[in-house]
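so the lab meeting is tmrw and i was supposed to have these ready like two days ago... anyway. pasting both below. for each one the top line is the aa sequence and the line under it is the structure tokens. i havent really looked at them closely yet so no promises
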Amino acid sequence: MTKLLETTGMVCPFPLMEAKNAIETMEIGEELIINFDCTQATESIPRWAATAGHEITEFEQLSEANWQIIVKKGK
């Protein structure tokens, strides 16, 4: 199952905080798609995912100031 988290327009650290909350409700192996436009989150979300044991399966810059990261829940 895949869950979409739309955080475009939220200032940092809210995209990261929302991602942490969302992934807590998911099962191992499920993917969380995070859309965001906060530049700091391009570093903070992958760093959190690696530290927490999750996998980044996709990281794409959609436009000049919009990104999408897909996080696969690990442990």
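ok protien two:
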Amino acid sequence: MKPVNIGGHPAYQDRVLTQLRKYYPDADTSFDTATWKVMEQFWNLDLSPVDQIMQDRYSVFGPEPRLPSDMLRSYLLSMKFKVTSLTSWASSLKQNYLFAILSGFMVGDTPGVGTFYDFTRRLWLSDKNNISDPLHPPKEKPKKPKKKGEKASPVEKVTVYDLLAKFEIEPPRDFSPAKRLFDIFCSQFLDKSVKRGLIDLNNLAVAGDGTPVYTGARERKTRTCDCLEKGIRDCKCNRIYHQPDCNIGWDSHRDRHYFGYDLYMLTASDSECDLPVFPLLGPASRHDSHGFLYNYFSMQQFLPEAHVTKLLLESAHDAMAYYEYCRDHGIQPFIDLNGKGGRPPVYKDDFTIGDDGVPICKEGFRMRRDGTETAKGRTKFKCPKISFAGGSPTCTCEHPCSDAIYGRTVHLVLKDNPRLFNDPPRSSKEWKLEYNARTSSERCNKREKIDYKLEDGRHRSSKMWYCRLFAIMMCQHLDAWALPKSSRLKDLFEQAA
């Protein structure tokens, strides 16, 4: 039958308070500060709307189900208390009364592990546990880079230009099975962070970064041919892959190959708490320049109210297609150069352009920025050898290239090369200050992988990995919300005592 939450969130609070008084009469002195903080977080967290969101995932027939709000709350608590296995968590609910009470269950009446897996099935809008077809030929493994710390070259056979043009017409559908998870995350966490002023979706500055997610020690697959019996070990025949959405990629940080996903996360770079906005799990071999496009156009599809005004990306995204897209859509790009995109060797006949887009005169001096003319779409640079020591401008260069009193000036037209000619230029303090916020994506990934132990899930399906990932993202937003100055739960508990 359909879940019915009689009493809503106040009923949950009553259950918590009643059972705390019964089973923990000395709770005000028994729990440490960290535990009280978690108790306060979930005491104030109203998840009752989830019961309505999940209505269509339950049948009108059958026994009364567990409330989706209680199941989700319990799942979030398992992330908080670092219990990485649903089997272990179901057992902990029976042994640790506090876990059961905070979840919203009655002590002695907690769900089993099968109930939790059934709940994750309802969160996943697909009959299949994975997105890709498990039967496919072997995929190409990225080659080890020549230098340590470098990222592997893309194995994709499509260019960034072609992929961007394709997604503008037809966005990717890889994220569709996780739509219900995102709906809950968006309505119960992301929107509340927006209302608290932690994120501005109308003027969103996003930082993107991919990070490896290890899901196994090796790739598990089963042959469907008899080539091995014939002595052919490296045939291209189809195989049945046990984790079809994963493959082998290159971890540039650890300098080794790995098996798993590439988690590409878009983070609100202007948020003080490095809050996640939109995730996407792709195969480990996917290059970041492609991972961003899969993520960004998926976000446009499932979060259309987000208006991106700034993009902060690392050098792996340094492709002309990005700059042209940003120019055409009113987005300000802050992308580091990778040194492989090339630059015009000579500009204005006798000036070259440096690696960061700054003109270099024929004497080898970097020119000094002198403002941007937005109306004309150009940035002005002036001679760095002009001195005002005597009260009037004087060129101190041994071989002046202009007889003007202010020396030679150069205007860089932004549309000539949007990759090199930025506003503000890469050499400016404004650009560097804004680009420094790109590390918010790295801090966000660190929170998920280290603090919340994302990789310890040891799941074998994209369904479970997405459930775990979204639960961690919900906890990240929950941690960013400021708690009331006075502990309402503790006050009520002490009044009863």
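from a quick look at the 2nd one: The chain has three domains: 8-123, 135-173+201-336+437-461, 352-425. The radius of gyration is 28 Å. will dig more after coffe
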